[in-house]
Amino acid sequence: AFWLLEGYFVRTLGMHRVYNSAFMNMLRDEENAKYRSYLKKTIEFDPDILKRYVNFMSNPDERTAIDQFGTGDKCFGVATLLATLPGLPMFAHGQVEGYTERYGMEYKQAKMDEWPNEALIARHMHEIAPLLKRRRIFAESANFVLYDFWTGYGTVDENVFAYSNRNGSERSIVLYNNSYGSTHGTIHISAASMDKASGELRQRSLAEGLDIGWDESLIFRYRDHAKGLEYLRRATDIHRYGLTVDLRGYQYGVLLDWKDLRSTAEQPWDQLCDSLAGAGVHSLDHALSLLRLRPLHEALEHALQPAALRVLAELGRELLKEAQLNTPVSGEPLKETTGADKQQPMPREGMARVQLSAREQTRLGGWLQSVDNFAWRAAEILRVDSAEEFVREFREELVPLAGAALRLPLLERRFSTVWPGTVRMLLPNWEPGASVERTWAPVLSWLLLRSLPGPPGPEQIFDQLQLREVLGAIFSTGGLEGEDAWRAAARVRVLLAYFDQPLETLAYSRRFWDDSDVRWLTGVNESGGKTYFNKEATDELLAWMALPSLLKAAQSSDADEELRPV
After folding, report:
1. For residue 81, what are the CA distances in angstroms to 56, 70, 141?
2. b/e string for 22-47 if b means 16 or more Cβ within 10 A?
3. What are residue 271's phi and psi, to 5 degrees?
4. DSSP alpha helices (H): ranges in 385-435?
5. d(CA 49, CA 383)
6. Could you read off the pLDDT of 4-54 as tens digits, one per residue?
7. Virtual CA dihedral for 423, 424, 429, 433, nearest 10 degrees?
8. CA nearest 210: which of 183, 248, 237, 228?
9. Are the C-beta atoms of residues 57 and 92 closer than 8 Å to each other?
């Protein structure tokens, strides 16, 4: 069929299948209003005619699909319509492979030596093939509903094709903007179509088209096939307002996998729906677990806020000054050391005590309350038998470690050589230019998580409480930029997993080097059958792994025994 005679072939001649040349020509030339009018007239007469059409982007008598539609978003947007409209989708020879030679009926063989476009094939397999495998949702016309896309200016954007369809309980919404410009609008009320039962034209709402009942407690989840994101929407909102979306030029969306949900105490979908406010996420189940963990994550964020870190760092500096001023050298008080003086070992009297002093506990009162709140939240999530016992054990474990951490800068002065630069980048110190937030936040994160009573172990608690993302966000606000924040979070997890193993043994452990976080942090890679790692990154990780030994030395009453090189 050609010259828009498809309707004549179907209605008058009674053909079962007919080429729909309007699909190719009008979508290629972006005569979108004409093609929407063409669809409207068809469904006004008989929606079943849509099933007779063979939609195509090219055939042996036409220019190739890649010539007419290119290889970008427009090509895949029109291919999405091809795969989701009622009727028969037809792909031309070489369309998926991206061949540029036009094949006529008279050709015995190809005249051009072409190779498949692997990137184009991969995108077809990822975006179009899954839709073709679910043609049962799109192929019929009984539940096909075409919508007008109303903009905020009270006009219909004729460049947007929007329709829904369903097969039993399976629902779908397809939207495609066949123009270069971006748009924003709502689908709510359909175009008129023939109701074959009554013989009259009727319009349907989006809720009616999707067969969604009115229920205040009903929430729907669905997935955008194009973006790979999941969404939540209340049934009553679909009834009242329809669906509002943004579409950039040549962007399409296919909303699939609709499932109805009801909120419970264990699964508060209503709270998640309200908190997302229409935004999409990669996994709703993951987002729901984060919602349940939000009080815990907020408590951890409060315990690691910059103000608390500065108080801890200032106490460490005061301890260092006191040790220097109270230590006699040749009858004179020791002044604050700078430059080469800092390499002189500090006397044992300046070493750490196991517990925080009364003055230190007073100064850290606010911080200790915040970490107790974190422990209470953890006890709720982990569902321990006795929350009071859990928090008490947590405080007993944390306080000595915190006291030792305060004295890490003092411990450094007892070494006969200056700590390497990699250590100074990771552990608390008072060198010029050292950032309190960059050094103290990861150390305190490990102290807090290390102090949580088990079982399970600290590493399992880290994963169960989904702390990687929240630590990455906390470290980002503390001055770590980009990937550095995620690397710091990964180092915390690695140290939780291996803190109880000697460093000299750990460095040669197969289990350690098979850990995915360790391999990422050290830049492990394979080439030519050999395994390589980044020396500087490995030095940095091993320096971080020395933290438990340093804290143990800082707590010891016999420091000289503990300060042997590792």
Report:
1. 10, 16, 14
2. bbbbbbbeebbeebbebbeebbeebb
3. -65, -40
4. 387-406, 408-412, 421-424
5. 60
6. 777 778 777 788 889 999 999 999 999 999 999 999 999 999 999 999 999
7. -170
8. 237
9. yes
